[in-house]
Specification:
With about 70 residues, the protein is mainly beta. Helices cover about 0% and strands about 50% of the residues. The chain has no helices and four strands. It has a four-stranded antiparallel sheet with strand order 2-1-3-4, with no helix packed on it. A hairpin with a 4-residue loop joins strand 1 and strand 2. The chain is elongated, with a radius of gyration of 13 Å. The chain starts with 7 loop residues before the first strand and ends with a strand.
Length: about 70
């Protein structure tokens, strides 16, 4: 689902060791969160994507996703 207008969404990408690989936010374009993995030379492996969304009225939601990069 799309975030309501004015929501700030922050995505953080971690490796399985817990190291932050990169972080992005939707401050440039509402409704779009883009990770450019090619510029960061991400190795094959398992990663955790942590998403947090904060609505203009202060409510925050968090989600975590696991995914695999295959090269």
């Amino acid at each position: 689902p799309n975030a309501p207008s004015g929501c700030i969404v922050i995505g953080r990408l971690y490796n399985v060791s817990g190291e932050l690989i990169m972080a992005v936010s939707n401050t440039q374009q509402a409704g779009l969160l883009t990770f450019n993995l090619g510029q960061h030379r991400v190795s094959a492996g398992i990663y955790i994507l942590s998403l947090s969304s904060t609505a203009p009225w202060g409510q925050t939601e968090r989600r975590s996703l696991h995914f695999v990069v295959v090269r």
